[in-house]
Specification:
227 residues, alpha/beta, 4-stranded antiparallel beta sheet, 34% helix, globular, binds adenosine-5'-triphosphate
Length: 227
């Protein structure tokens, strides 16, 4: 896998909820084409870190940069427009809308022309043939695994340069989780820069190039999966 210029750089991020410190100097670097995991126990600050990157939480210190420009404090839609797409924990689909409508809404999150949208849709259907078979089905009636596929598909509709996956297989049966990991490997092989947040190191380090471990909002380890 080839890696290139720095896409995302997070430095010294500090974030707290009322009195609870969630991030205490967290840092993270993602280069083009890199597949990076953030692992840590419950409450380590993983979700806080990616929510701060995605503009959903405002840190009280530190900075987030995208291709060398500081973007700390930008709104979620501005971050998305830069090419950063997040698949949130819990999927956050529009349950009453169809698969096709959810995908179309994904595409509107980043202004791209009709040709790019059509190409994104073809890519999503190639990764998830099951979604193509269920275009008119309401998202809320899909199985858990199909909902996760739709959530990832919707994020990919923005043609992101960086995809962030939070607990992509949480709550899924083992076989379904394996299918999602197979798809994530496919995304990796396509060269899209990705951050995977997970509690399960064994699963993530099998697919990632670099891993960081968070403990109490700080990075205590950074290295390859073998290390
Ligand atoms: P999990 O794997 O359980 O999702 P996590 O590593 O994603 O955990 P965070 O959810 O980022 O960790 O939480 C970091 C710290 O911030 C924890 O101590 C948590 O209790 C606290 N925290 C998270 N969200 C809130 C909130 N909305 N209000 C108050 N404290 C919060």
């Amino acid at each position: 896998m080839s890696t290139g210029d720095t896409l995302l750089e997070v430095r010294d991020l500090e974030l707290a909820y009322d009195g609870t410190v969630a991030l205490d100097g967290a840092r993270l670097l993602v280069r083009e084409g890199e597949f990076v995991s953030v692992v840590g126990a419950n409450g380590a600050g993983k979700t806080s870190l990616i929510r701060a990157i995605a503009g959903m939480l405002t840190p009280r210190g530190g900075r987030v940069s995208w291709r060398g420009t500081e973007i700390t404090g930008r709104k979620p839609w501005q971050v998305c427009a830069l090419g950063i797409a997040q698949v949130a924990e819990g999927r956050q689909l529009f349950a009453a809308l169809s698969v096709a409508e959810n995908l179309r809404l994904g595409a509107t999150a980043r202004r791209t022309g009709p040709a790019a949208r059509a190409a994104a849709m073809r890519r999503v259907f190639a990764l998830f043939p099951r979604l193509a078979e269920r275009l008119t089905q309401r998202a809320g009636t899909l199985s858990g695994g199909e909902q996760q596929m739709l959530a990832i598909g919707r994020a990919l509709m923005t043609n992101p340069e960086l995809l962030i996956l939070d607990e992509a297989t949480e709550g899924l049966a083992l076989l379904v989780a394996r299918e999602i990991w197979r798809i994530i490997r496919g995304i990796r092989d396509g060269g899209m820069a990705t951050i995977i947040v997970d509690k399960n190191h064994a699963a993530v380090t099998a697919v990632t190039s670099r891993n960081i471990i968070l403990v109490k909002g700080r990075v205590v380890f950074e290295g390859s999966g073998d290390e």
